[in-house]
Amino acid sequence: MDFHTFLVIAVGAIFVSNFVLMRFLGLCPYIGVSKQLDSAVGMGMAVIFVMSMASVVTWTIYTYFLAPTPSNILFKLFMGSQGTPPDLTYLRTITFILVIATLVQLVEMIIQKVSPGLYRSLGIYLPLITTNCAVLGVSLLNIDSEYNFIQALVNGFTSGIGFTLALVLMAGLREKLELARLPKAMQGAPVAFIMAGCMSIAFLGFAGLKF
Amino acid sequence: MSLTKEFIKGIYRENPVLRLMLGLCPVLATSSSVSNAIGMSAATTFVLVCSNFVISLIRKGVPAKIRIPIFIIVIASFVTLVEMVMAGFFPALSKSLGNFISLIVVNCIILGRAEAFASKNTPISSIIDGLGMGAGFAFAMILIASVREILGAGTWLGFPLFGTDFEPIAIFVMSPGAFLTIGFLVAFLNWIEHRRSAS
What we know:
The structure holds two protein chains of two kinds.
Chain A: H1 3-16, H2 27-32, H3 37-66, H4 73-79, H5 92-114, H6 116-122, H7 133-144, H8 149-177, H9 189-204
Helix pairs in contact in A: 1-8, 3-5, 3-7, 3-8, 5-6, 5-7, 7-8
Chain B: H1 3-11, H2 24-29, H3 34-58, H4 67-89, H5 91-97, H6 108-118, H7 123-153, E1 155-156, E2 159-160, H8 175-198
Antiparallel strand pairs in B: 1-2
């Protein structure tokens, strides 16, 4: 439990294996909501919040309800800690996606109440956070990397920051790109992809970064 | 619309990846080799066809307000099935695709087709629609994976294509190559469309 571990996780999640540019998670909003800086920032904030919450909730559910460990609550409750703990890990996909869908609904209601302007500008992309693979991706990654509770929270939060960083950088570039004269076939998505490729090359420079 | 048309539209005109820009994450992440691309397309198509079928069967009984959670549960069940079958019978493929098998559940193509097609049409045409969209997805995946594997590793489906003195462009099997490949591919298709509408 030291600061060093958190720093390694944070730098890893933001730069070395950036969610969008290195892991290819959350590409739909990356291409879809990156046309304006304002909505990109809003989307980024929503994703950071949902990813942190989702990390915490899915980690807790996995560790105490699905994993075959003696601390499994269902094991204690129904089997009185006798015999072998049940292995329910195959239910993780279906459980996680339901939890995430509920969380997104909550965030949507909060944003609608607190900031109607932001709600309008995010448009259809807010409900789409449910099908944003970054959120489910970070939940699964926390489990695969065998993080503990705090590490999972740090990973969720910083992965969200990494996503927002890539999204905001892209939005800034695309606002400038509106003024550029491009061949007709390149306009819109194709040039966004090629720019993402260039950004990805830049982020490759962080590979192998050690502390 | 006839069933053949239903099938054909998914391959080119409404290709989910190259024209509608849906489900990009698995396309870019698992297209570094053709064998991965085939495995991923097979898994996605299976889930797409099965979920389309089940959703169109239950479409009249599903209340409109909670349809999305219900669709997601149907999709997630099939994804869990695929996950278990793949881990049991193709452990190597399952390992190299990693979490992207579980992530089929959030593939926008599947939920998109459930919402836009299967919830409004008969089971038979929903199956055909799923097959067509799956074929379109596979077509795009294999196309992108071929470009990346040939340029990035000098092989196709693992067979070496060039002599020993071929120097592969390693960046194409790494992450930037995926973005560059799909960018130029979509631009090329746009160019063809512009030419066609101009003439």
